[in-house]
Structures are given as C-alpha cells and as structure tokens.
Design goal:
The chain is α/β, with parallel strands linked by helices. Among the domains are: 137 residues, P-loop containing nucleotide triphosphate hydrolases (Rossmann fold), CATH 3.40.50.300; 90 residues, Winged helix-like DNA-binding domain superfamily/Winged helix DNA-binding domain (Arc Repressor Mutant, subunit A). The protein is built from 17 helices and twelve strands. The radius of gyration is 24 Å and the shape is globular.
Length: 381
C-alpha cells in the first residue's frame, strides 16, 4: 500500500537544468561538473530526479554519496563511508567470497585490508575498477554532495585526501575519460578554493541551481493538490503574494511553511490571522539568527555593511561590502575570510564563477533588515 502524504515536496520546472545534465552526461567524460547555488535551492533534489528519470536505462553505474549525512574525521572514516560490506550469493566459502562495495567498486577483503592498513593506494584501486566497468560497456557516474566534509583529512600524514581525490577525478575525466564526476555544494568558497588549488582550471564546468522563479512559485501555490498533495486548504491570491514576498523561490522554506499552516487550517482555508502569525514567527527566527551571531562589534559592522551593499544589488561583491564599512575594522583580505565564515554559517551564498555574494534567501534578507533596524532603535535609546 502506498503511503499518502498530506504535504509532499514538489519538483517544479527544472527542465532546463535536466536538459543540461542529460547533454553533459551524453558526452565523453572530459571534465568535472560543479553544481552550486544557495542552500535549499534544490540541488540534491534535482540530482535525485536526474538519476531516477534520465540514467535508469542500465547503461550507467550511478554512485551518489551525500556526505552531509555522515561524520568523517579521519582516513578510516572515508574508507568506511565509501565501502559497504556485501556477502557473495555464492554458497561456497563465505569467508573467501566476501566483498566490500564502495558504492562505486566491489573489493575483496584482502584489498580492503590493504586500504585500511594504507598498504594500497585507494586511487590505484579505483582506477582498476573503473576500467573493469568500462570494459563491460557501462559508464560510471560519481555524484558527491557536500564534498567539503573531507577537508582536513590526510593520507599517511602527508597527502591531503581532498586534493588527491580531485587530482584523481581530473585523471579519470579529462585524461582517461573513464567516468563522469559531479560535485554539488552550497559552499561556494569551497568550490573556489578547490578550483584554485587543484589542476582544475581547464577541466571543470559549472551549473548554478538558483531559487525558483516567481511564475513557478505561483504555479505551485495555485496547484497545491497536484504538486504537494495538500488537500486540506487552498490559498487566497493575497496569501500567494505574501508567500512570494517573504520566501521568494526557496522551495524547502515554502514547503515547511505550508506544513506549518496545514496544522491550523480549517474548512478548506487558512485564516489570514493565522497565516500572518506563522510568517511572523519565521521572520523573528531569522532576525534572531543575526542577533545571536553578531556578538562582537566587528560582526555587527559587517552585517550593517552587507545590508547596505544589498540595497544596490541583491548580488554584491566583497569590494562593495568593504566600501560600506562605517569604520576600517579590517582589510579586504581579512574581510574575505569573515565573509567566508558567513557563507559556511549559511548567512550568505557565494557564487564562485562571478565572485559575488547574496544573502541566503528572502527570509534571511528580511531578517537582516529587521536586525539592522532593531540595532538602530536600540541606539536611539
């Protein structure tokens, strides 16, 4: 029996992005594809849909790792995360037939032991297994979400795992054409850092996944039963307008809000008083995030400068933020690091292609404006 949900996450109008991915994977493996964009813009959802609908024909060997779900602090964690234990269906000697599945490769117990003991190079083993897949006419596609989880991990105390992994991906794509590699991350600083540090200057492509457009959001909110399985209420035109004003195109935030008001709907509608009360809770929470983080004068000043910069353009550069600082609290290099921390803390999103920032969604923009206004009011007292 199929479970019937009262609120289902939608997948709205990503045909252009799907078409890009289908075109890219149909070509010979020749580059690493970086998928980036603000948090909750739908990167992972897009990849799951792409794999399920476009690559399910048996010609591809798809391995999708979501590292945001896993704690990796050392090399052994990397091995345990990527390898899964599997017993052969052969009823012979189970001890000898046991294998480990890297979700990319199946390795014998002896090979796994060699990897754990650091007697074997995992990248040599990976290449051998990729060659086997290609010899069988199968195209491997490796997809990794939030690869920055591997930062700070070293092999044999000398080799940085992340850098070695990217050098391997370059060899497997541009040089050997053995597999396609997709890296998805909401941390644009991470992508920029890797792009600069590794041999990626002429071996990468980029795909930005932004928030939903206004017409897509309006279509969704006017078709809740079809797209989200919501039957308990319909929204008024004014409520649809208000959701766009507050949440913009952030699919995850809109879905969460639709669930919040679902619990308070009655007689096929959501009273405006309830609707506004729930939205107010969201915005106060966003304001509180800025208030909790800005416990030093420097952080307060940077938030003020970011707010001033975004009045000119929703996407702004580091120089624009620097120019808005009321006092010379830091140089531009130091500001780069401070803004990078705001990216890691999900206050800002960073575009590694254009080197510009944006506040992480409409609710965060409003929350920042509320915080700045609150500080001004406190200063008047």
């Amino acid at each position: 029996m199929t479970t019937q949900f009262t609120n289902r996450s939608p997948f709205i109008n990503r045909q252009q992005e799907i078409a890009f991915l289908e075109s890219w994977v149909a070509e010979e493996a020749n580059n690493i594809l970086f998928i980036y964009g603000p948090k909750s813009s739908g990167k992972t959802t897009l990849l799951y849909r792409f794999v399920r609908e476009s690559l399910a024909n048996g010609n591809y060997d798809i391995k999708h790792f979501n590292l945001r779900e896993i704690l990796i602090v050392q090399y052994q964690d990397f091995i345990k995360t990527f390898f899964e234990h599997d017993y052969s269906k052969d009823k012979g000697d189970v001890k000898e037939k046991r294998e480990y599945d890297l979700k990319v490769f199946k390795l014998s117990v002896e090979t796994l032991k060699g990897l754990n003991d650091k007697e074997l190079d995992p990248f040599v083993v990976m290449k051998q297994e990729l060659l086997k897949l290609n010899d069988r006419g199968i195209r491997p596609v490796i997809i990794i979400d939030e690869l920055q989880a591997l930062e700070g991990i070293y092999m044999n105390g000398q080799r940085e795992l992340l850098k070695e992994l990217f050098n391997f991906f370059v060899a497997m794509t541009k040089e050997s054409h053995l597999c396609h590699v997709i890296i998805a991350s909401s941390d644009g600083y991470f992508i920029e850092r890797i792009y600069s540090d590794s041999k990626l200057k002429k071996t990468s492509k980029f795909l930005e996944i932004d928030y939903l457009r206004k017409d897509d959001v309006y279509y969704w909110l006017n078709n809740l039963k079809k797209e989200s399985a919501i039957t308990k209420y319909t929204l008024t035109s004014g409520q649809v307008d208000r959701i766009w004003e507050i949440f913009g195109g952030s699919c995850w935030e809109i879905s969460r809000f639709l669930g919040d008001i679902l619990m308070r709907a009655a007689e096929g509608k959501v009273p405006d008083s309830v609707f506004e009360e729930e939205q107010k809770k969201v915005l106060i929470q966003m304001r509180s995030l800025f208030e909790d983080y800005a416990y030093t004068p420097k952080r307060k000043a940077i938030f003020h400068a970011v707010h001033a910069a975004m009045q000119t353009d929703s996407r702004f550069s580091r120089s624009q933020v620097f120019a808005k600082l009321a006092e010379p609290i830091c140089d531009e290099k130091e500001l780069y690091e401070d803004l990078g921390e705001l990216v890691r803390q999900n206050f800002l999103a960073y575009n590694p292609v254009t080197a510009t920032y944006m506040v992480q969604g409409r609710t965060m923009e409003i929350g920042l404006a509320m915080y700045v206004e609150m500080i001004k009011e406190v200063g008047k007292r």
